[in-house]
Amino acid sequence: MAARRVGNDLSRRKSDPTSSKLGNNEAVVAAELPWGSLKVVGNMSIDFHSLPAKFTVQNLLLEIFSMFEKKIQYACIEEPLDKFLNKSLKRCDDTYLDNLLRTLGNVSEVCLPSILEALIKWYEEQISLRKRSSTRAAYGVNLHNCLIVAETFAEVIGVLSQTHAKLVQKTFFTLLNEYRKETPLTQSVVTNIISLLMALKFFRIKTSQVSEIEQGVSFLDELASYYLEIDLKQKDLKHAIVGLLVEILLPVAAQIKTEANIPALIAFVDKLYVPTLELINKKQHKMAAYPLLTCLLCISQSKFFLNNWVQFLNTTLSNLKNRDPKISRVALESLYRLLWVYIIRNNCEGNTQTRNRLECICNSIFPKGNRSVVPRDAPLNIFVKIIHFIAQQKLDIAFKDIIFDLLGCTRVTRSNTITIYPERMNIGIRALMVIADGLQQKEGPPGMPRTIVPVASGTIQRMRKTYLTRPLTADVARSIGLELYYLPCRKAFDAILRTLDTDVGKCLMLTSSRTKGKEPDDLIGSDMKPKLDLFRTCIAAIPRLLPEPMPHHDLIDLLTRMTVHMDEELRQTAYLTLQNLITECADWREDIIHTYINFLTNHIQDTFPVLLESAVRFLLQLLCFWKSAIQQEKKKENLQPTLNGIGTIISSIGRGTTTISNSAGVMIPPNSVTNASSHQSVQSEGGNAIGQPHLSPLMNNASAIALHNVEGLALALLCQTRVQGKKMAISLLREVKSLFSLMELHDKPVLTVLDEATPYVLNKYIEHVPLAERQSWNQDFASACDKICTIDTDDNLVNSDKGNEYMHWDTWACALSGYCEYKFLPEQCPTAVNFAWPTLFVRLNACNQFVDPNNPQNENRASLLRSSRSKATASTLCGEALDQGSYLSLWQKYLVMSCALTQPPSQHTSVLARSFSPNGNLDSIDSVRSMTSSFRGHRTSAQVNCVHLFQKISSMLRWEQTRDMRDNVVLGIGSTNPRCFDLLLEELLTKGILREAQERKNESNVRRRKRRDLLRLQVVRVIEIAMFRGLLSASNLVDSQTGQLSHILLDLFSAIRVNVESDSDRDISTITSLRLHFAKTITLMVNSIPRKLYHSFGF
């Protein structure tokens, strides 16, 4: 490998993606690697002609020293002074540094002495460069960093003690004896001794062999002798020795399974127990004496423990209510360690005596009728562990006397509400979960509690226990012995959830009117925080613990609402719970999707786009978890024998059906049968049996229906003005398509239809850019979406004399109209369209109030529809609200999509009748009822159809305020679904709009005449757009028997023809546009009619 020195600038290959400019005065070393790229490092004193091994170690050490200096310099200069050093130098934050340290560890196995020598020299050099002061004032906030460095040194000593215990002990006592010789014992000497003691904080005694235990106990014995020699007046020094003894003894006590019959250990306990017991009643030494006395009892023999622990227990229980919170906390920690020894190691005593002891303890920490526990503000996990210990030997006491009381099982009212005691209920739920997990996983007895605090280096990490998330069913509870206790707990859990939802759930949702314009701190007071903490615990307990008798759809609704709660931690917990439900509860997946989409549609409006995007992003995560769960299930199925005949039974159910209403609230159209990917059904010989119901294949696949619901939502999201919203809609469609590949029966994926329609749409609807440029684009939907949304309209291309007003129309709205032509989405994706239509209708109504010219607040609105880019920006909680310009652009696209995907009225009375064979056998009807009742999904309370839409939008044709509004009304209403266009004409006729447009009498009033001409122009342009989109080929406007056009259109065309022939006292621009668009409409109509039908139209 050739190396060269570069002084000023370094010429690099343009193809190298990592190339960067270097400073003019920075000397670097560049080496060309075998694969062609350059390796650039700073100028370091490395002998490039040395042996490979020496070169490797030198280079490694210099790299590490360089990284150390950069890290320390950054921590001292860039970061806040009050930030701890261990936070800045935390492991796993810098991958490159972690790799260097890992390499250093591997190299140290070969040449450790040389590396240590180099590290010590570097360290000494760093020390010599800086002057240090011994006073706190000089260190300032860096005193914390000095303590962290000292703790790191203690960690190193602890690691060395595992292999060089004798050397560490000898060095320690040598230094200690030197300090002890100094007289008098000044404060400086005491400080040095305490620092020396702290250096052994991580010293550990090996317990694998008796000889190692005896060696360690001899060290403790010498330390104990020194402890007894110290006068009580030297409080700090005496407490430091006690602290070191506790640090060393706790791990030893945890490793003793039954009892240690080692004479040296027994003598050590006898030596210290009585002197320490005398200190627990002295106020100055109580904090130090409690932990040491606890450790001595924990390492003692069973006989010694049972004879002495009662006296200490009584003292401990009396100190739980001590006014000093530190003393009460120490007493509680002593209690739960003693309880572990009593129950787990010594297996309690006689039944009566044990019950009395446990009742005394429980009444002290869980007082009957109290709202809290004793002591207050103690970590709840300590109480949970105490209950867990008791359940190991006395399960009945743990549940009936403790958990039932904590959860308030006897206080549930008939209305399923309960008085909330947050701390007690939190402990009860956690204890129930821990006990059930231990029994189901058949774990052994819990280990002795150990206090694991964060260490400076970060090398000691707490291993978080993973709990089961699979629902704890009644059968499982019976198998693990919880049958008698589980149901009351579930009923109490139900009442707790309902009460908390009322108190701190619904009222603190981001969509609630109470939270508008307020910060969480303004609404969440000190009295609410314990309830919120309990609510988080309850949400996290699901689905392991399910409430009873709450229906599962109510539970899903509650969890869905909590995903938009003000409390961020509660939101994240609700997210995780829904993800676990998707993974663990296969029967609930469809309900979760339907409920979440319904909530998103009706409660998360477009006012706050950031909140909406966050909700959609979580829906995408749910789909990813669903796909992962299906893949895991298929892997398990492949390992099991394949059951024959299942596919035949399923596929024989659905051939020749029309429509049927399922529980998701969607009407599955007739053509969904032919569009299903597995639409060919197997029939028995001789045809179907008489009375056999003919059902759509989709009716057998609730999962496919739920995914089509997601597609419907994604279609509505394509109207979003923000680029991120459209990208997430496309991601949803892509994920659904991936999920469909794992299923059998479903409509054609929406994304596939959009991809296939893209070349057609680009050529026909996007005339704002040259054809050659359009043909150079990628012909897939996602790429076309990115391109179309960035097109800016140019008014210079508009020429009203040519009737090309569409050149200043929003390009994305035009594209959506093209994608929604009947031959694409409505025909090929009927189920997704049926789901999309209600969502679009709801959101169109919500936006309409912001753009309606009849609304006084919109009178001064300027024309802002010419750009489809939203002006909305993001903020912390909900984000900024949409401005009016963004609302106009959003309304425009909702109008186009709503009209294009609107659905005709459903004949509910004949749905079932048309789903059966003609004989009308009642058994068939019952079978369908039983089948439809088993479908899982969200039921909608009301069905909306095109009639409701036309009643709202028909009056828009009279809007005459601005050109933009008129143009977009034309594009929207002109994009109406051809299957519903006859109903649109009937609505216009009912509202008098067509009658006014057909009026042949000359109007003398100039204002009314102008208004009537504008109305005629709007109606003609609407029909022109509809003809452009292929109205006649897919509508009911042509009689199937006679081949004649609808009389409504014939009358309209006849009236318009007469009107355009007269130009007396008419506005020249209006009449010119009317003639032009009328001619184009007739031309489009003629071109869309097959030649064989010309005679029917009189051509």
From TrEMBL:
Pfam families per UniProt: MOR2-PAG1_N
Bias type Basic and acidic residues, positions: 1-16
Biological processes per GO annotation: cell morphogenesis; neuron projection development
InterPro entries cross-referenced by the UniProt entry: ARM-type_fold (IPR016024), Cell_morpho_N (IPR025614), Furry/Tao3/Mor2 (IPR039867)
Coiled coil: none
Any GO CC annotation of this UniProt entry: cell cortex
Region (Disordered): 1-22
Domain of life: Eukaryota
Domain Cell morphogenesis protein N-terminal: 145-626
Protein name: Cell morphogenesis protein N-terminal domain-containing protein
